[in-house]
Amino acid sequence: MFQYYFLLGVRSLRRNPALTALMVLTLAIGVAASVATLTILHVMSGDPIPHKSDRLFVPLVDNGDIENYKAGDKIDDDQLSYRDAVNIINSKAGERRTAVFGIAIAIEPERKDIGAFNARGLAPTADFFNMFEAPFLHGQGWSPADDKAGADVVVLSRKLSEKLYGDADPVGKRMTMGGFQYQIVGVLNTWNVVPRFHRIIGNNDGAFSEEEEMYIPFSNAIRHEFPRNGSTSCHQDIAPGFQAFLDSECTWIQGWIETRSASDRAELQSFLDSYAIEQRKLGRLKRAAPNMLYDVREWLDYQKVVGNDNKLSVWLSFGFLVLCLVNTIGLLLAKFSVRAAEVGIRRALGASRREIFAQFLIETTVVGLVGGLLGLLLAFGALALIAMQSKALTLVAHMDWVMLLTTFGLAVASAIIAGLLPTWRACQVTPALQLKSQ
């Protein structure tokens, strides 16, 4: 019977075409608005590295001034000083450790048709690429020995590599950056991590920034005293000179530690607490604030990657969907009311109320399917318009299979909910009254 009722539902679309089109359009607009905002929230709040997000941790210690500090206050800084970053890198904590800060370096291409230009990049340690599973197109990252030596080596993004060398494999070639000759050891494939959890601080677009263009060793950037491209926080005045800056309590480096398993978190916390105690003995970390560890999901929450305004937008869009459903209910009542005579005849011929209910509910499901298809097209259009607003929105305004299925599920569910009252009203038709009126 389901197939029969479904075919009746398809045929019913041709009845009162204007009314049917209005129902489908009303439902589609409500679904499109809801799905478009829900898609953005879904992408923004996703786990960027789900199989190990509970094993990657951001360590934070409070090295701020003791003035105006109250016992129990949480750390008010999101980065590490150079001293703390180096100490953590050189420790045996976890399985892998890295320190990262942003750089911007002038590149002097060999090609005469390309002038010198600035490129954005990162200065991490060697563990960075394996820790965050960066996808290599050519070559590989540098070695721990290169870290120790501050070697002049570089890993390029695919986009920068193609700009400088076309489709050729540039590994082994040398290029001039910041006035120094660097050997290319690897090229990353396109790496659009959403959210870009390992590089939230210091980017104009935060967790939804574009991928970096190149990577050089942390120690190399320090050795060449390259300028920082990111956020720096200093609690007190410092003496002139780069070394004085390194020796200061200014925070400008992001630290990450990877453990072998999630259960090693307590051990890592113990290490961080012990480290803070040792530093206090040296006259540092005077606030004695709680030392913090954030795994990936906690870090995204702490950084408010998904803001309250994003959640509010979703609630407002679903409120709009409810209004569309109210209108759809009214249209279905009008559509089914003109079929009272048909229902009366069917009831007189022996059809039960249950069968009438099933028939009309399946018809509303057909309306939901058509509304879902149109809503999907409208949602794609809405996301395309949203993506045109900024580069950051381009990364989040796209639909995956989960949201494709959600679109149809939401449309069908909405149509069924909207059709419950009209269908119930249709089942209350009294056959004798309808036959008498005929």
What does this structure look like?
The chain has two domains: 2-45 and 307-437, no CATH class; 56-302, no CATH class. Helix content is 50%, strand content 14%. The chain is built from 16 helices and eleven strands. It has helices spanning 2-12, 17-44, 82-90, 127-131, 144-149, 158-165, 218-223, 242-247, 265-281, 296-302, 308-337, 340-348, 353-387, 391-396, 401-427, 431-437; strands spanning 56-60, 80-81, 96-108, 117-123, 136-139, 153-157, 174-177, 180-188, 214-215, 251-258, 292-295. 37% of the residues are buried.
Give a short synopsis of this structure.
This protein has about 450 residues and is an alpha+beta fold. The chain has helices at about 1-10, 15-45, 80-90, 125-130, 145-150, 160-165, 220-225, 240-245, 265-280, 295-300, 310-335, 340-350, 355-385, 390-395, 400-425, 430-435; strands at about 55-60, 80, 95-110, 115-125, 135-140, 155, 175, 180-190, 215, 250-260, 290-295. It folds into two domains: about 1-45 and about 305-435, no CATH class; about 55-300, no CATH class.
Overall geometry comes to: elongated
**SS elements, strand count:** 11
Which strand-content bin applies to the residues? 5-15%
User: Radius of gyration, rounded?
Assistant: 31 Å
Outline the low-pLDDT stretches.
432-437
Structural class comes to: alpha+beta
InterPro entries: ABC3_permease_C (IPR003838), MacB_PCD (IPR025857), Macrolide_Exporter_MacB (IPR050250)
Domain MacB-like periplasmic core: 20-228
Organism: Duganella rivi
GO molecular function: transmembrane transporter activity
